[in-house]
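Let us begin with a simple case.
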Amino acid sequence: MSRLGFAGRVTLLVAMALLVVQLASLGAWLADRREAMPERRLLPFPDQVEALVQLFDTAPEAERPLLIRAFGDEGLVLSVSPLAPQAEEGDPGEVVLPGLGQWLADFSAVLGQREVHVAIREDFAGRLFPNLRAAIRPEGLRISIRLLDGEWLMIQRQAIPGMTIGGVPAGTLLAGLSLVVAALSILMVWRGTRPLRDLTRSVADFGRDLTPRPLVLPGPSDLRVLVEAFNTMQDRIARADQGRSDMLAALSHDIRTPLSRLALRLRKLDPALRDAALRDIAQISRVAEDAFSFASVDLDSRDSPVDLRSLLADLARTTGTPFEDFAGADAAEIKGSPELLTRAFANLIDNAQKYAGGGRLRLLRGDDHIEVVLEDDGPGIAASERARVLEPFQRGEPSRSQAAGAGLGLSLSSRIIGRNGGELRLEDNPAGGLVVRVVFPLRTL
């Protein structure tokens, strides 16, 4: 049951509740009818038929109406007729059941000496197994036994009032009604929990790319409050994130111009001082450029088709990185920003070249995802440091003394990939080094 969603659990609870109610109703009905059921049985026992035959044989003709009134009831009709039933085809509208007639004759010596005919109405018999169907549902069943005076005793079963509705057994109708109620209940539960399913999908999508997707307000007041609060929350988070990006973009833009003027003025200084100052300015410019790139991730469209196979092949050819395509003939296209994804993978390849002397690219495709793997033989990144180096302005220990930078390379790549529906993971290379694994679920394809 732990694998069932909320809608599945509620549906299961409703179905179980309906089952319990039906079982309780059946138990109450059986308890109420327990004493009356033997008298309301559907078919008289053979020994009773034998007793009735003997009574009608010995009773004067004038008393037979009294016997009919005494032993007949609402479901069992007795009559005496001088007309013999048709033994072979049966009377019009009836089907002869020789199997039941022979069974009654074999049961009793008295009945075995008489002519016994059993027939049932055509609309009750059915085409298959009429003897079995008559024993299970004997409404319309007629047993004819010839008396000693030549007349025929007719014992006929008719539907018992209260046990059928419109000719259909009450239990069948109740079962059908229960199925209808269960289906309607499940449908209502499914429709009622639809806002929760939409909310779940929207939360996952918003967490992936921070793009607000306002949900339609549902009818129920409690769900309406929840959805309205979520819509407000994602709008506020998106505006706060956009404000941060705008601030970074503005700062990086405003820093560039003064730095350019400062670089021109420094050219008049002593060469030794000038070179050191220019290196510092170049580093500050790189920080500003990286910050602008980090902020501009949210400004680019992410709805264009991107062929990862072609993108990676071009980068591999440009950077001299070995590339293996294991995706076969399957498509390797996703929806995203070609420019930003090119920047993200270029950053990853550049990091591998700076800190590990290069890496190896692979493209793979699974049942539910497409995967890009970049592995190197460098110093790697400790497991305890991997989450930190994916944050802005953070750098791993091995890189601090090897290259200058703002610490935005990995975080920028991770941000771009995340905003394009993927996920960047850092793992150990069994042979030594680092494995950068980028996974795009097929839902984004």
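The second case is a distinct protein. As before, the sequence precedes its structure tokens.
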Amino acid sequence: MEQEAQGTRPWPVLRSAQEIECDGWNPSTGRSCVLGYHRGCHRDADGVEWLDR
């Protein structure tokens, strides 16, 4: 316990959902989603929204 308190065990790195890439891509244009990890509508750099089928 004392070793963990002294920092010998690294803390996990926390990331926001926006830092995790979304794997969605617009089926009409082939452009990728720019929102990061999310639920609901995807959005590309032009602002076009779509839902996965």
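The longest strand covers residues 42-43. The mean pLDDT is 85.
Keep these points in mind for the review questions at the end of the chapter.
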